[in-house]
Amino acid sequence: MPHNKFLQLVLYVLLILAIGLTACTNEPTQVEPVIILATTTSTRDSGLLDVLVPDFEEKTGYSVKTVAVGTGQALEMGKSGNADLLFVHAPPSEKEFMDGGYGSERYLVMHNDFVIIGPADDPAGIKGVPAAAEALFKIAVSGAPFISRGDDSGTHKKEKALWETVDVSPQGNWYLESGQGMAATLTIASEKQAYALTDRATYLHNFNTLDLKILMEGDPVLLNIYHVIIVNPEKWPDVNEQGARAFAEYLVSPETQEMIGEYGVEMFGQPLFFPDADKTDADLGLE
Amino acid sequence: MELIWEGIKEAINLLVSGDPEVWEITLLSLKVSGLATLISLSIGLPLGTWLALSRFRGRQFSLSIINTGMALPPVVVGLWVSIFLWRSGPFGSLGLIYTPAAIVIAQTIIAAPVVTGLTAATLQQLDPRLQLQLLGLGASRTQMILALWREARLPLLAALMAAFGAVISEVGASMMVGGNIRHQTRVLTTATVLETSRGQFAMAIALGFILLFLAYVVNLSLTWIQQRGAK
Questions:
Q1: Residue B39: which residues within 8 A CB-CB, separation 6 or more?
Q2: Considering the domain boundaries, does residue B16 fall inside one?
Q3: Which of A263, A267, B113, B189 is the most exposed place for a label (fewest CB within 10 A)?
Q4: What is the least distance, in Å, from the CA of B80 to any CA of chain A?
Q5: What is the ipTM of this complex?
């Protein structure tokens, strides 16, 4: 009867597995302590989340799984219900996302700004040019290498919008696309002594290892505005709405806003982000 | 489910329509990984043979190092090759970082231990009396080694397939030393990572299918050579 014994064993194993599985599926209906946060690589690379997430976890007992991807993928993750909340910076795409009913709420959190960086000798001569689009135009005309994220991220979208305003469709040997995150792209720019559009936070955070200078800053179109979006639980009932709301409220709370405003001052002598929870989109020049 | 169907449709579409960028990426993957495999073969076959046939102090130690090398994580290789090739690094002046050549170097470092280790293991598996017999029949040392390789051609081709499989599928090193630069160093694996990060999942799935298909075609031809040799 060895065959029967084997069958018996298989049945036992299956039984144990079944009990284990039902135990697993029952548990999370009571408390769902895990929040999936889809955010942009620039937020991660700036190091801000490394401060905020542990603080939030300690205060609330939630555990946050941060998935840092391009804004394009972050929004897709929200659309397909694979994230509970989004922390992103591409207002036009965010508006589309909200109009499609994929998000239930959206709050203004903070902004920083984009800068154009490049080699210190500035071969395209963009230093002192007041408008960002004009600076890009000069780079295109000079044929000096420019490296783009090329990944549909918020930064890439910003760059594309700037090219559009000067009617240039960038292509050719001088225009490189890395298809990677901000920090990796800056490393490539430094190695190739190329120009690039970057958010100030990631640049300052990686400043030490880069052979690049800020050559263009201060144009109001270069504001980089961050919103937090709670993924609509009506579209995806599995979304951890409670947890997402807790994190969104944490981000806009006065204490966190103060932390955001102070972040970076100690290390870089200037803040990396400017808290905006008490402002409206219109204050920052958004519709 | 819909996503998977879309991915399959997109893959067929891309292959049939002959999308120039996808072709460019596919050809570069094939060239870079093919070249890295060939270089690994030219290093690994002699080195593995030498390790298998000679007797010297530290031989076991060398073999253990090579065998560990077979498990080298691509990202670690990528990191070290980057450090050496960056402009700040010792070989920075060569200007190799973010070029296909850099990917070939990194992939060779990944594949060479695989060829070396499997060659050594294969030749040690052969009956030691075969060596003596060949030499006794008046073969020169070169002739003897060629005869041993012919004898072990099946597992040696398998080693080649393992090496090619390791490099065509790795993403970490290609991403770090190649930089995934469009029209220059973008290969199938790094393009897949990019399309995923853009949220273009169907395209990412399509690239994945092309990668598998490519690996299949290469291995099919190697298997064909191998099995023809078996008769």
A1: B104, B108, B112
A2: no
A3: A267
A4: 15
A5: 0.73
